[in-house]
């Protein structure tokens, strides 16, 4: 066994979480720090030492590195050689309080900086399209509150906390995704409130570069919006139709006479469903049920597509299931694709659960403040942190790291220690050659350095 090692504190040239330099370089490339500084300038006090935009960025950096409360900004403050001077805890708290006094304006300023940074990153990394469409997934989640906080309320799962609604841009099977917009809501907020879905979609649309969200001469946008059944409301579908986007909304089948529809559907209407590799999936079928359902209340061109499959052993059937098969469905206005491909595309909305899990691992699992306005600022900071991770992955990482969730990125890339040395009249950050992912870190840094600065 190795001899007992003494532990001392010292060595100012040592850098912990040295891999965080990749996030700092990504920020410089996207010009996010300058956008935040400009947008939050109205909140800068006379004679203030620290810029409000820099403080919000440092908070987001701390969240990206694993922090879950404002005091964790100390992790960034301890590395001034990498992240620059960082404000004290009281200064951070006072800024959040000032931003919360006019939360709507502060949130708008942060979102504007995020949108500008996203446009720059997408110019470098390319627009994340799938079959020519930018895919936006909307879904809500529950956040537990362990103390009495403003807007915290009993949830539909008999918990206590919040029920935010989030939207993410899906990167497809070759990537992860990135957050676009989020709305903090009370714990007892309804799942299928059309006004909330409309607001979050509009905020998400504003996050896309202008050339990506622009409509063509016919008013169509190359955008697909996916939700589960909570988004299947007449008002939301109508709004999406008016905005010229395609939609794929999980259907509440109890709104339709499913037994009558299934009885009328001819056997040849059913086609074998597709698996993840677009191959026939045994025990699952899809059918077009548009002609057999009353869709008069939905936008023109809305289709109802049903799926039936053999449930796994022991699964409990629902009232809409029939003949021992589980029946599900969704509403879409998409055309021009084969039925199994359209249904497979809708099922891939389930990837948003991975995005939400990653968001909860990036500051969203804990809303640390009592006031709702301050927690709205925290929500925006957590989305900002998730942006940093997603942009780094798209610009500089490949292989498994491009698909990795935040916990793995922190373990493999960010947690490496380094030493700051001076060589050829410049400072150089040296990391151990024996670190298993040292090559991935240096390669990512080279890729970021090769991209033209803004």
Descriptive report:
- With 454 residues, the protein is of the alpha+beta class.
- The protein folds into two domains: 14-104 and 368-450, no CATH class; 132-357, Transposase Inhibitor Protein From Tn5, Chain A, domain 1 (Alpha-Beta Complex), CATH 3.90.350.10.
- Helix content is 40%, strand content 18%.
- It has 17 helices and 16 strands.
- The strands form three sheets. Strands 2, 3, 7, 8, 9, 10, 11, 12, 13 and 14 form a ten-stranded mixed β-sheet that branches. A three-stranded antiparallel β-sheet has the order 1-15-16, with no helix packed on it. Strands 4-6-5 form a three-stranded antiparallel β-sheet, with no helix packed on it.
- The chain starts with 13 loop residues before the first strand and ends with a helix.
- The mean pLDDT is 92.
Quick tags:
single chain; 454 residues; alpha+beta; Transposase Inhibitor Protein From Tn5, Chain A, domain 1; 3-stranded antiparallel beta sheet; 17 helices
| Poorly predicted parts | none
- Into which percent range does the helicity of residues fall? 40-55%
Q: What class would the helix/strand composition place it in?
A: alpha+beta
Largest sheet: 10 strands, mixed
What's the total number of strands?
16
Rg (CA only): 24 Å
Quaternary form? single chain
CATH class of the largest domain: Alpha Beta
How much strand content do the residues show?
A: 15-25%
> What is the CATH architecture annotation of the largest domain?
Alpha-Beta Complex
CATH topology of the largest domain: Transposase Inhibitor Protein From Tn5, Chain A, domain 1
How far apart are the termini? 53 Å
Shape: globular
By DSSP (H or I, 4+ residues per run), the number of helices equals: 17
The tally of structural domains comes to 2
Task: Quote the average pLDDT.
Answer: 92
CATH H level, superfamily name of the largest domain: Transposase Inhibitor Protein From Tn5, Chain A, domain 1
């Amino acid at each position: 066994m190795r001899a007992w090692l003494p532990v001392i504190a010292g060595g100012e040239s040592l850098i912990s979480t040295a891999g965080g330099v990749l996030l700092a370089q990504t920020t410089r490339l996207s010009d996010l720090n300058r956008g935040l500084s400009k947008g939050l300038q109205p909140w800068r006090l006379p004679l203030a030492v620290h810029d409000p935009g820099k403080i919000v960025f440092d908070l987001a950096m701390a969240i990206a590195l694993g922090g879950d409360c404002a005091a964790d900004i100390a992790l960034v403050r301890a590395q001034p050689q990498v992240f620059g001077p960082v404000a004290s805890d009281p200064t951070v708290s006072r800024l959040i309080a000032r931003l919360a006094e006019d939360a709507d304006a502060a949130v708008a300023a942060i979102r504007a900086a995020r949108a500008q940074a996203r446009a720059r990153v997408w110019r470098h990394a390319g627009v994340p399209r799938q079959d020519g469409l930018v895919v936006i997934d909307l879904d809500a989640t529950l956040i537990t509150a362990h103390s009495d906080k403003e807007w915290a309320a009993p949830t539909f799962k008999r918990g206590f906390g919040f029920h935010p609604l989030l939207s993410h841009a899906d990167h497809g099977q070759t990537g992860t995704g990135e957050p676009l917009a989020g709305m903090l809501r009370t714990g007892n907020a309804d799942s299928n409130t059309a006004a909330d879905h409309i607001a979050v979609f509009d905020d998400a649309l504003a996050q896309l570069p202008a050339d990506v969200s622009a409509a063509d001469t016919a008013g169509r946008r190359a955008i697909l919006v996916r939700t589960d059944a909570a988004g299947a409301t007449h008002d939301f579908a109508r709004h999406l139709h008016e905005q010229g986007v395609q939609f794929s909304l999980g259907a509440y089948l109890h709104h339709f006479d499913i037994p009558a529809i299934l009885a009328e559907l001819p056997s040849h209407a059913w086609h074998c469903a597709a698996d993840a590799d677009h191959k026939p999936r045994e025990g699952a079928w899809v059918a077009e049920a548009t002609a057999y359902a009353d869709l008069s209340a939905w936008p023109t061109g809305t289709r109802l597509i049903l799926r039936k499959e053999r449930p796994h052993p022991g699964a409990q059937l629902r009232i809409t299931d029939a003949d021992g098969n589980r029946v599900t469905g969704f509403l879409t206005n998409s055309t021009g694709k084969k039925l199994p491909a359209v249904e497979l595309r809708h099922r891939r909305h389930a990837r948003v659960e991975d995005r939400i899990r990653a968001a909860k691992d990036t500051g969203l699992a804990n809303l640390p403040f009592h006031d709702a306005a301050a927690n709205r600022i925290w929500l925006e900071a957590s989305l900002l942190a998730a942006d940093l991770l997603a942009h780094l992955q798209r610009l500089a990482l490949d292989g498994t790291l491009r698909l990795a969730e935040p916990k793995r990125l922190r373990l493999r890339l960010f947690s490496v220690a380094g030493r700051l040395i001076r060589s050829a009249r410049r400072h150089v950050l040296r990391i151990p050659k024996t670190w298993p992912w040292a090559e991935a870190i240096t390669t990512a840094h080279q890729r970021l350095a090769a991209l033209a600065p803004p």
